[in-house]
Design goal:
β4 (91-96), α4 and β5 (136-145) form a beta-alpha-beta unit. The chain is built from eight helices and seven strands. The N and C termini lie far apart (50 Å). By secondary structure, the chain is an alpha/beta fold. The chain is globular and about 50 Å long. α1 packs across α8 (224-234). The protein has one domain (8-193, 224-249): 3-Layer(aba) Sandwich (Rossmann fold), CATH 3.40.50. The protein has a seven-stranded parallel sheet with strand order 3-2-1-4-5-6-7, with helices on both faces.
């Protein structure tokens, strides 16, 4: 039997960027991790190996969060994995991280692009969390990922930011309705981060990077290491009373 004191987290979209960094930060705090990937199986398996080298247990499952019809099957696979690898029936923390960014002016955004973002960032989070409710422990935690772009407006992100605004409202409703089970639900809103997200613009476009640095109190764009540890800290027992909050981790953008 596994140590029943070991916490288990499920991090969606964890093969790269913020999700990967969050999974590693949790592992460093002694939390075991189930990671999901869409197409990057090799990267996900590499992450599992890295977590195991840290002394934790980990596993990777394939998941396309735009395909809500697959969520029943995914939930069954999670249950089976928990039983086989951890000899348990539930996990503690759900981090709804999976997502993509589309950079398009409002006037040029297509319905297809809008629907893809909606299915992934809103419908996917709503129904995946709903399906996993039976597998999340009472007293567990949920973290939904928003964006600084839901607070400040930068041209080109109207569709993406609209989805994140919806997630911030959904988080408060989840917190209200899951409170009876002592499940706390919070939103983490990253500022601009240097990853391959959205085509790697923040990382690779020097002019954009310099602009972000000039608008950030701490004087630079964010990196994944700025985020993962903060999310892991939010999930620590010391933060159990933090609930229904939007926590922006942006170094102080556009103050």
């Amino acid at each position: 039997m596994s140590d029943n004191k070991t916490k288990i987290a499920l991090v969606t979209g964890a093969s790269r960027g913020l999700g990967k960094n969050t999974a590693l930060a949790l592992a460093k705090k002694g939390v075991d991790v189930i990671v999901t990937y869409n197409s990057s199986e090799a990267e996900a398996n590499s992450l599992v190996s890295a977590i195991e080298k840290l002394g934790g247990k980990a596993a990777a499952l394939q998941l396309d969060t735009t395909k809500s019809e697959s969520f029943d099957n995914f939930t069954a696979r999670v249950k089976q994995l928990l039983q086989e690898k951890w000899q348990t029936e539930q996990f503690d923390f759900l981090i709804n991280n999976a997502g993509i960014g589309i950079y398009k002016p409002f006037a040029e955004t297509t319905e297809e692009e809008f629907d893809r973002l909606m299915n992934m960032h809103v419908k996917g989070v709503f129904f995946l969390t709903q399906k996993l409710l039976t597998v999340i422990k009472d007293g567990g935690r949920i973290v939904n990922i928003s964006s600084g772009l839901a607070r400040f407006a930068l041209p080109g992100y109207s569709a993406y930011a609209t989805m994140k605004g919806a997630i911030e409202v959904l988080t408060r409703y989840m917190a209200k309705e899951l409170g009876a089970r002592q499940i706390a639900v919070n939103t983490v809103a990253p500022g601009a981060i240097e990853t391959d997200f959205g085509g790697g613009a923040v990382r690779d476009d020097r002019q954009l990077n310099d602009f972000i640095a000039s608008q950030t109190a701490l004087g630079r764009a964010g990196v994944p290491d700025d985020l993962g540890g903060a999310i892991a800290l939010l999930l620590s027992e010391d933060n159990r009373w933090v609930n229904a909050q939007r926590i922006e981790i942006s170094g102080g953008m556009f103050l």
